[in-house]
Amino acid sequence: MQKYITRLLIFTAVLSLIVYGLFTVLEQFYLPIVPYLIAFFASISALVHFILLKASNYRITKFSTFFMGSVTLKLFMYIIFLVVYVLFDRENAVPFLITFFVFYLAFTIFETISLLIDLKEKN
After folding, report:
1. Which pLDDT tens digit goes with each residue over 30-70?
2. Residue 116, Cβ neighbours under 10 Å: how many?
3. Phi–psi pair at 104, nearest 5 degrees
4. Taking 90 as the threshold, does the pLDDT of residue 118 lie above it?
5. Maximum Cα–Cα distance for the chain, whole Å?
6. CA-to-CA distance for 48 and 53, rounded, in angstroms?
């Protein structure tokens, strides 16, 4: 888990620098929630990865159940976050949704690659 946290911190720092650079050029699209959004994704990623690493000790059928459950739980948490934010800030809904989608893709790719690396090392 220590290696994953290190990778996650590096990934989050690099992503934050890229986002900061983009929003200095496109500052009219900057939303004050962006740093919190990055922290939200990083926290969820760490939690899900921890659960999946613990579940990898079980048989493959139990791991599959944990994997599907964690993906479902994660998606529900994301949807709840999206709906609540859009309800409270309708005027910035489109930039927020685009930013959220980009972060979702970036963290999903990172999580998948990291999980594959950790499971290969474990086996």
Report:
1. 888 999 999 999 999 998 888 887 877 777 777 788 888 88
2. 10
3. -60, -45
4. no
5. 50
6. 9
